[in-house]
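The following record pairs a protein chain with its ligand, zinc ion.
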Amino acid sequence: MPIYEYECQACGAHFDKFVRSISAQFAVQCPQCGSQDCKKALSLFGTAGGSVSGAGAGCAPSG
Ligand SMILES: [Zn+2]
């Protein structure tokens, strides 16, 4: 189940929300202050202090 974490720009509250479809556009409302000025944050899968693989061209055969 895809879960995305959002951060409220108004009060700074963090909350997670279930998302059925990534392409689906919906208004995210802060459960704390009710503001819809929220941005998606990545944290559930650990991002702080982590190195993300940059190259994504595919598997390169190591000769
Ligand atoms: Zn808020």
